[in-house]
Structures are given as structure tokens and as C-alpha cells.
Design goal:
This protein is an alpha/beta fold. The chain has helices at about 10-35, 35-45, 90, 100-110, 120-130, 145-165, 230-240, 265-275, 295-300, 325-330, 350-360, 365-385, 410-415, 420-430, 450-465; strands at about 65-70, 75, 80-85, 140-145, 175-180, 220-225, 245-250, 280-285, 305-310, 320-325, 390-395, 400, 435, 440-445. Strands 4-10-9-8-7-5-6 form a seven-stranded mixed sheet, sandwiched between helices. Bound molecules: pyridoxal-5'-phosphate.
């Protein structure tokens, strides 16, 4: 939950941020001096990848840290430095790196073959481990990423709405998504993820802004509404319900700052979906890490479809869409107007075995311990930042520091934060051996110790109080 710190006048905030900005050249110089091996690897990468990268998430200034190997919480970088991981491949490794149970599961499967042109009991077992954690979800389909899971959820929702549309009427196709929400790389969700506020229209009625070059257009496909505004959502959806296929919402918004919306916002989305027969999709690709039953279990609101990814694959590429049988059964072979869904590696035995081994250890007690340690980190960071224009947010095992003098509720708040300060603070932490995102998002895993959590808080305090 948000820990809202003292409100301060903006000029004082700017003076605070300027102190770290002034240290920027020294922080970057130190990073360069610690990472010559990473720089050499990065130079090599630039001759094969555009700008040196094959995935946007790891883009870093002045260059990324290349990793040689990892174990538990430790990352060993290309220069032989030992770093403490507080991001675990974008939260996807809740047991840490190379956990013995996961290594045993994949070592047991690899000699028997890694993928077949046939189903296996591994994928059935993973599905059986997941469905009881999602009350209301009766069926599941696996994909190879969270992005694909979202793509399929949108397709299922549109097909379900079309199936219920009387002959001769135009089926609804519009997807409602929220400003600042990231749902992966699929075109229809690549709108208004991080738009410049001056291009994004009025806060109460944002215009969709393309997140990428190459998108075909939002008209008739996507509408963007403000996150965490229950009344705005109700007014818009009540007026346009006939055109809406699905409401897609992150029950904890990652890019906005690991912010939990008001329960009333999620309840309003549920009520509107019920009132108008719209599909409500919770994107729990990240937030399934918050509790044994995801955020939906924490807040007691069930969506029609849930998208999953990250932790359910035990460190392997994965995604899933789960939900009501009446929707997902549209992909059953006997359906006339069926939803098609292929994928060479969907539900492959390696991912499924690793995912199941991981979920077996992620018991309610394990989530309770993760939540306790996460709360300890959040409290420590908030204490270190007391009186400063910094906000600490997150829930469960997740945390984030935002360089802003007021609380974070929605995208426009998040967009006003000092991103340069955040990335310099993150780089300064990397120099001390702690790995968070450039936006200062982090998480703990079951292998994270209290001592490591304390050491992170202490390094953060040294940076913000120096
Ligand atoms: C909420 C959410 N949805 C979807 C995705 C996309 O998942 P993937 O990177 O596996 O495609 C992410 C990734 O961070 C996410 O946070």
C-alpha cells in the first residue's frame, strides 16, 4: 500500500532532486569503471542488435550490466562482481535463481526431451496447480509470454461478445484499457503506456497515444480511460456499453508505480461488466506475485478472465489466460465460430515442470513470509525517505520508490515524477551492488534475507541523505 510522505513545496523538491543530478557524471563514471566487461559485451551486441538490445526492458544508460551466472539472490556480472538481485528477471523468479527444486525438475525432464508435437501430463499438472488458486476460473490456456496471454484474452473477449450479439447487429470490439498500464507488446494494448502528458489530452478523458511506431490505429479497437477513477469509468462505459467488448485492468498497476487502485475502482469495473455483459479481464502477469490467489484473492473481486505470466513458469518463458468456461470453451475443437490459438511451445514440458515445482513451494505460508519481508523493505525505505519528496509504494513482495512530492494514484501523478533522479539513484545502488529497475522498482524472493533487505535500505539511506 502507498506510504504517503510529507507534502513539500515544488521548489524545495527540485532542489532536493538537483543534488543527485549534480552527482550524475560521478555516478556514471563509477559505474563505467566497475563494468568494463559489460561495456565490451555491449559493444559486441551493437553489431548484431539494433542499438545493442534484443529486449527493451534491459535498456540502460550508459550501458547494461551483462550477467554471467546467478544463484539464489546473487548475480555474477561480466566483470565477476557479485550483485544482490532485487528484480529477479522482472519479478519472474519468486524462489530466486537456480533454485534446487526447479533445477531438479528441469534436470529430470531434459534428458527425456524438451518439447514434443503432443500434449503431456506436465501441462495438465501445471493447470491443476493454478486453477484452484483462481476462484471463478474453470479453464486455462498456456502461452509463451504475458503479452500473448493478453492478446488471447482480448481475442476471447471479443469472440464471446460477438457470440452473444444478435444476427444483423455489429458486435462490440472496443477494448477499454487504462492510461499508464503496460500489458505487453500486443498492438491493441500498446496505447498510452507512457505518453507525454502534453500529448495525452485532459486527465479525465485521455486520448490514446501510440506507444510504438507501426501501430495501425486505435479507432474502434481501443479506448483509454484514467486509472483509478471509478466514476469516470462508470460514466464512459454506461454511455458506450454497446461498443465495449472488454475492460482490461491491472489490479496493481506496475508502470504507474506498483500502485494498488482503490477497491471501489475494481468493484466498479466488475459491476459495469455485469450490468452490460462485458468481459472483465484482470492482468495479473505481475500481481499474481502479491498473494496466493493474486490481487483478485486479496481484494475479493473475480474477473471473467485472468492473464498470467512470469512466476508461473519457474523462470522459463510463459503466459496463460484463465477464466470462465463459457468464454474459454470458445476454443474447444467442436465450436463453429471458434477462437484459434496455436503456439509451438505452449505448455511445453520444461516450462510446465519448472512452473509446477515453483508453485508447489509458493504456499500461503511462503506468500506470508514474502509479504512480511516486502513490508519490512517498504517501511525501511519510507523511514529513510521521511520528509523528502519520495513516495514508497507496492504490496506483498513488491516495492517502488517514486521521486515525487505527492502520493501516486494514477498515471498523471507517475508522469510528474523525476525519472532522471530515479535512474541515477538506481545506478548509484548498482554501484553499491544492488539491482533494481531504473525506475526503482524492486521485489524480494523467498531466498532474500533480512540482512540483504537491511543492506539495501541502508545503501538507499546513504544516497538520499548524503
Ligand atoms: C501487467 C503485465 N502484463 C503483461 C506483461 C507482458 O508479459 P511478457 O513480458 O511476458 O510478454 C507484463 C510484463 O511485464 C506485465 O507487467
Amino acid at each position: 500500500m502507498a506510504v504517503v510522505l510529507t507534502e513539500r513545496p515544488e521548489a524545495a523538491d527540485a532542489a532536493f532532486y538537483a543534488e543527485l543530478h549534480a552527482q550524475g557524471p560521478a555516478i556514471e563514471a563509477r559505474y563505467r569503471s566497475l563494468t568494463p566487461g559489460s561495456l565490451a559485451s555491449f559493444r559486441r551486441a551493437t553489431s548484431v542488435f539494433p542499438g545493442g538490445y534484443t529486449r527493451d526492458a534491459v535498456m540502460r544508460s550508459p550501458h547494461p550490466t551483462f550477467v554471467d551466472r546467478a544463484q539464489g539472490t546473487a548475480l555474477i556480472d561480466a566483470d565477476g562482481r557479485r550483485l544482490v538481485d532485487f528484480w529477479f528477471n522482472a519479478t519472474s523468479l519468486p524462489l530466486g535463481h537456480a533454485h534446487p527444486a526447479v533445477v531438479a525438475a528441469i534436470a529430470g525432464q531434459a534428458p527425456k526431451g524438451t518439447a514434443y508435437y503432443a500434449p503431456t501430463l506436465h501441462e495438465v499438472r501445471l493447470a491443476e496447480a493454478l486453477l484452484p488458486r483462481l476462484p471463478g476460473a474453470e479453464r486455462i490456456r498456456f502461452t509463451n509470454s504475458g503479452s500473448e496471454a493478453v492478446m488471447m484474452a482480448v481475442r476471447f473477449a471479443r469472440a464471446w461478445r460477438a457470440a452473444g450479439t444478435p444476427a444483423g447487429r455489429t458486435p462490440p470490439t472496443t477494448l477499454v484499457k487504462f492510461e499508464g498500464s503496460y500489458h505487453g507488446s500486443y498492438d491493441d494494448v500498446s496505447w498510452s503506456v507512457s505518453p507525454k502528458p502534453e500529448k495525452a489530452g485532459p486527465p479525465a478523458r485521455p486520448v490514446p497515444v501510440a506507444e510504438s511506431a507501426g501501430l495501425a490505429g486505435a479507432e474502434g479497437r481501443v479506448v483509454v480511460l484514467p486509472f483509478n477513477d471509478a466514476q469516470g469509468l462508470r460514466v464512459w462505459v454506461d454511455a458506450h456499453a454497446d461498443s465495449v467488448a472488454a475492460i482490461l485492468v491491472e489490479p496493481m498497476a506496475n508502470r504507474i508505480g506498483l500502485v494498488m487502485p482503490d477497491r471501489a475502482f475494481l468493484a466498479e469495473a466488475r459491476a459495469l461488466a455485469d450490468r452490460h455483459g462485458i468481459a472483465l479481464v484482470f492482468d495479473e502477469v505481475i500481481s499474481f506475485r502479491v498473494g496466493y490467489r493474486g490481487v483478485q484473492g486479496e481484494v475479493g473481486i473475480q474477473p471473467d478472465l485472468t492473464t498470467l505470466g512470469k512466476i508461473i513458469g519457474g523462470g522459463f518463458a510463459v503466459g496463460a489466460v484463465a477464466g470462465r468456461a463459457s468464454i474459454l470453451d470458445l476454443s474447444a475443437p467442436d465450436r463453429a465460430a471458434r477462437v484459434t490459438h496455436a503456439g509451438t511451445f505452449n505448455g511445453n514440458p520444461m516450462t510446465s515442470a519448472a512452473g509446477r515445482a515453483t508453485l508447489e513451494l509458493l504456499t500461503p505460508e511462503a506468500f506470508a513470509r514474502l509479504g512480511e519481508l516486502g513490508a519490512q523493505v517498504r517501511a525501511g525505505l519510507a523511514e529513510a525517505a521521511r520528509g523528502l519528496p519520495l513516495q514508497v509504494t507496492g504490496a506483498g513482495s513488491l516495492f517502488k520508490v517514486t521521486a515525487l512530492g505527492r502520493g501516486v494514484r494514477d498515471y498523471r501523478d507517475a508522469a510528474a515524477s523525476d525519472k532522471r533522479w530515479e535512474s541515477l539513484c538506481s545506478l548509484a545502488l548498482a554501484n553499491e551492488g544492488f539491482v533494481l529497475t531504473p525506475g526503482l522498482s524492486g521485489c524480494v524472493s523467498t531466498v532474500t534475507t533480512r540482512a540483504e533487505a537491511d543492506a539495501l535500505v541502508s545503501a538507499f539511506r546513504d544516497i538520499v541523505r548524503s
